[in-house]
Amino acid sequence: MTEQPPDEPEVAEMPRWIPVLIGAILVALAGLAVFTGLQYRRSTLTSQVHPRQDRAMTNAPPGEPGAGASLVLHGESGENTPIANEPAPGQSRTVITGGREGIAATARVFAQRGMVLNVLPDDSMVYVNDLPIGQVRQFNTMDEVYDFAEPGSYTVRVVAPNGAERKFVVVASEEAKQEVVRISARL
Q1: pTM, to two decimals
Q2: Is the pLDDT at 53 greater than 80, yes or no?
Q3: String of b and e for 8-26 (b: at least 16 CB within 10 Å)?
Q4: Boundaries of every domain in the chain
Q5: 167: buried, middle or exposed (CB in 10 Å: 19+, 13-18, 0-12)?
Q6: CB of 164 within 8 A of CB of 187?
Q7: According to the model, what pLDDT value does residue 92 have?
Q8: Which residues of 129-146 are buried (b: 16+ CB within 10 A; e: fewer)?
Q9: What's the rounded Cα separation, in Å, for the pair 109 and 180?
Q10: What is the distance of C-alpha 80 from the center of its chain?
Q11: Average pLDDT over the chain, rounded to whole?
Q12: Contact 111, 172 (CB under 8 A)
């Protein structure tokens, strides 16, 4: 007696409309990505090797972090852009003042063109020469540097939602050792 192999189940073919539907969905997603302006972020190493060149392509007023990046309106002609004070003389240092009401420290640092903030909480408001420029999270990476409009001295005040406050004096000068100063604080 000869034994016959068991019957193999038949495999159903995939309907032709399924690959067409998958392709249409992928094309729609690609079109949506192009429409919304999906862009990959440059790596930190790339941005350090090739400094930002996109500053000239924005319509932002001088001292503005970038067109559309600020939560604070500076006006079309830049009339709300912080004006530089006379450069503060001397070396980097911290001045401690106060009395019965409490003690306050003001740190003075130097930079050639701008600052980056490393402050917690990151929803704290930042003021430059008493003009609001936005929240800390807008200026917390080297891709989001706040550029000063002109050389001089700027009083930077950071105010947390709970009312805590820190004050810094940044002197923007071509003679500074650092191009961008990093300000760190915990409020």
Answers
A1: 0.54
A2: no
A3: eeeeeeeeeeeeeeeeeee
A4: 44-186
A5: middle
A6: yes
A7: 54
A8: beebbbbbbbbbeeebbb
A9: 10
A10: 20
A11: 76
A12: yes
